[in-house]
Amino acid sequence: MLNLVHTKTFLTVLDERGFRAAARRLSVSPSTVVEHIQNLETELAAPLVVRQRGHVEPTPQGAEFEPLARALVSTADRAVGLFSEARLRVAASSNTGIYLLQPALSALTAAHDITVEQWIGSNHEVANRLGLGLADAGVMEWWDDRPGFFAMEWRREPLVVIVPPDHALASKKAVKSTDIIGHRILGGEPGTGTGTALRNALGRTASRLTTIGGLGSTEAVKRAVQAGVGISIVMACAVTDEVASGRLAALPFEDVMVEKVIHLIVPTALPKTAVGSLFLQHLTG
Fold first, then answer.
1. How far apart are CA 165 and CA 220, in angstroms?
2. b or e along 226-239 (b: 16 or more beta carbons within 10 Å of the residue's beta carbon)?
3. pTM of the prediction?
4. 215 CB contacts (<8 Å, ≥6 apart)?
5. What is the pLDDT of residue 82?
6. SS3 of residue 234 by DSSP
7. Alpha helices, DSSP H only, in the chain?
8. Domains of the chain with bracketed CATH
9. Which residues pair with 167 in a beta bridge?
10. pLDDT at position 33, please?
């Protein structure tokens, strides 16, 4: 196996055009530089450098080896940089990543010299990215307890009923679960996170709701509600701006607590010094 330390010494000798200058740049003795070159020449079974009028030049074999040597050292430096750079890859479910996670990530980067790469998608896609090693941490609305990961509750986000400001329910301060029976509810269909939360909280009442799927995103749902297409049930944090501007009315449930549990997930084998551990400590500290 080619020694990368010796290879780097060879390149430094060429760059500095001498053994002593290379030794100063590498902070080693000239004899160590000579030893590295000799060992590398032994490994390759070819002379690599020759003294020419007070400086060092590559031999024909050394000149042929030089571009390969630079590629090897560059690749090794990049590989080390992947793990030495404070780089955090976070995968988050869509509403969680859009409406809850951003302030926490902003505070994290302000407090620590760290680069954050975000990926936002469905809960299933977040779980898959974690399983494939494409994310250092996940933030999502459920977890399937697959082995190799540690999951903990981060926060609970209440769900509210949203209606246009001129809707019959808009004058209420809160609604009972039976108040929304008979209304067209955009989203919340079985199989979604909201649908699961509704079934858990409302029990049999959930089966009496008229839910309509297919809008694809909370932003689309909000626009449809504003247009009077129907009402909806969303996380309270998702409509802060619309409620403040009067474009929507948000009504909490009066008789039940309907909420989503947001989970943080990291690999169980994560070292305490890893950026994923720092992320977990920052969000839960």
1. 18
2. eeeebbbbbbbebb
3. 0.66
4. 186, 187, 221, 224
5. 61
6. strand
7. 4-16, 19-26, 30-44, 60-84, 94-95, 101-111, 123-131, 193-202, 218-226, 240-245, 275-284
8. 4-84 (1.10.10.10), 87-153+273-284 (3.40.190.10), 155-260 (3.40.190.10)
9. none
10. 96
143 burial (CB, 10 Å; 0-12 / 13-18 / 19+) is buried
**What's the pLDDT at 63?**
95
pLDDT at 191: 66
Q: From CA 44, how far away is CA 20, in angstroms rounded?
A: 23
**β strands within 141-193, DSSP E:** 149-163, 184-186
Cβ contact 253:175 at 8 Å: yes
Mean pLDDT by groups of 10 residues along the chain of 285 residues: 93 95 95 96 95 89 95 84 74 93 91 90 91 91 89 94 95 93 86 80 86 87 95 94 96 92 90 85 87
CA distances from 110 to 106, 124, 160 (A): 6, 30, 32
* DSSP state string for 75-96: HHHHHHHHHHS-EEEEEEEHHI
Beta bridge mates, 9 = none
What is the rounded distance in angstroms from the CA atom of residue 154 to the CA atom of residue 73?
Answer: 43
Q: Give the whole-angstrom CA distance, residue 284 versus residue 261.
A: 14
Q: Alpha-carbon dihedral of residues 134, 89, 272, 104, nearest 10 degrees?
A: -140
